[in-house]
Design brief:
single chain, 220 residues, alpha/beta, 52% helix, globular, binds erythose-4-phosphate
Amino acid sequence: MKFFLDSAMVDEIAYALDMWNIDGVTTNPRHVQASGKPMLQVIREIGRLVEGTDKTVSVEVNPHYKTVDEFVSEGRKLAAIHPNFVIKLHCIEPAFKAIPILARDGIRVNVTLIFSATQALAAMRAGAYYVSPFIGWKEANAEETCSLIEDIVDIRDNYGFETQVLVAAVRNGRQIADAAVAGADIVTAALAVYKDAFDHPYTRDGLVKFQEFWDKSRYE
Ligand code: E4P
C-alpha cells in the first residue's frame, strides 16, 4: 500500500520524501492556507520536489466551482503546470462528466470528498484515477468506515475499474492498518499521524531495558 503525505508544507514533504520515500502528496484548500503561500506558488514548489519521479501530487480546483466547464478549464490549467499533478474534483454531479473529458487530454482526476460507496462507484465508472473516501470525517461523526473501504475495493474489483482507492483524512495508525487490511491502494495522512503510527511506547520501553543490559555487558 502506498503512503501519501497530506500536506502543502514544502519542508514536511521534503522530510517525508527523504525519510520514508513517500509515494505521493495530496493537498487541499486547508493545507494551502496553512502553507501561508499562494496556491499556484506552493503547488509549483511541491512539483519541483517530485520532479523526474512518478510520484503524483493531487491539487484541488476551486471548491466554489460547480459546472463542467469550470472543472475542465481549471483542470487543464493546473495539469499544464506539472506532469505529476492529479486534479482533485469534489464529488458533485458535474465531476462525472468532466472526468472523461479531462481523461481524453491525458489528465488524471482524484475525486475528493467521497463519503459513500455509491459516490465512489459513480466516480470510478466515469474514469477517476483516484477515489478519496474521507474516513476521518466519518469516524468523527461516529460512523464505521472499514466496511466503506471494503465495499469500494470490492466494487472496483467486481467491475475491473482501474481506479486506485486512496483512503483520506486518516488520523491514526489503526486506520492505516485497517485500510491495508481492506485492500486500499493508498492512504494519505499528515506527517504527525505517520510519526505517531511508526512509534510505540513498548518499543521505547524495550529500548531502555536493552540499553541497560548493553551497558552492563562486554562487547569483546
Ligand atoms: C485528502 O486528499 C484530503 O486532503 C484530506 O485527507 C482531507 O482531510 P483533512 O481533514 O485532514 O484536511
